């Protein structure tokens, strides 16, 4: 019987905690399932990753697999002079370039850019899917800039598509980074009574929109927990916490709502969604947020902002019917920012927080199915096994390079 050779995987997650956490969770899963596998995670640090060090330190204390010699982290060096040239349009590509001197890129032509100037049109291609509005397209698909060193025939048929394994919801369920004051406040609320508003790592609103959200919350009478972030300065990417939220909120708002609401800065989202007091989630529809919403059985109201979030929102509202729609085609693109009025937000929150609505029942059903998928014999459990078999049977190299193999947008 031949000896099983050891294999090493290299994970290179995109910058940011929202990409690092799924990569680490995938690594922990693989190490637990295959004793002949070791994993190294290459980390690209951003200046605003204030929770990165506490997160990595918490891994070794909370999980035996992370303290194993088979699981390592390596910080990649970066060129600070290159980082100074970054802007919101080239942020991630420029940031990744700053960590290595050369990059290889394979572009391809996409002809859906013609729909950018006609956002009301729909792509009514015969299929099993609902017609997809052009205004819900991923922003990257509507960008006409750049030249592709390819042609239609080569791009379409030149190579085989890799196998995709749907492995599980990759969530950090042992997060110990929660804020004690937030948890204390939630503990004092009745089950399913709180609507939680959080818009991701990069989500923020201008003062006019903040006031509309505040008026909606106050008029709704619902208990709320609101993660309110300060918009970044020009040519920057990430928002920050307000020194004083009263500067942007309606006059007297905090005093009038102090018995029913709490306004916070950065939020430990997973910890909050896991709390029994939370009964609804107003979200930007980032994929990690969608997975956390399903895993904890908390129904969502969709407020997408950037990246692929409009496509996520469309799928949740139209295909799955598991969310309340605030504005699934909402986008933040430069100075063109729609203002959603308080009346519309209030109506959506009221529908979201109904105790026996159909959406709540559907999300509960998906919660149960997501857990079954992880059990032995479940779809995600089986997919992980197939992936491990493929890695361990690969004879071409002892090291497999997985660039963003577990990235969840």
UniProtKB/TrEMBL annotation:
Pfam families recorded: UDPGT (PF00201)
Alphabetical list of Gene3D superfamilies matching this protein: Glycogen Phosphorylase B
One of the record's GO molecular function terms: UDP-glucosyltransferase activity
UniProt KW Glycosyltransferase keyword: yes
Family: Belongs to the UDP-glycosyltransferase family.
Top-level class of the enzyme under EC nomenclature: transferase
InterPro entries given in the database record: UDP-glycosyltransf_plant (IPR050481), UDP_glucos_trans (IPR002213), UDP_glycos_trans_CS (IPR035595)
Domain of life of the native organism: Eukaryota
Keywords attached to this entry: Glycosyltransferase, Transferase
Keyword Transferase: yes
E.C. code: 2.4.1.-
Listed PANTHER family: GLYCOSYLTRANSFERASE
Name listed for the protein in its UniProt record: Glycosyltransferase
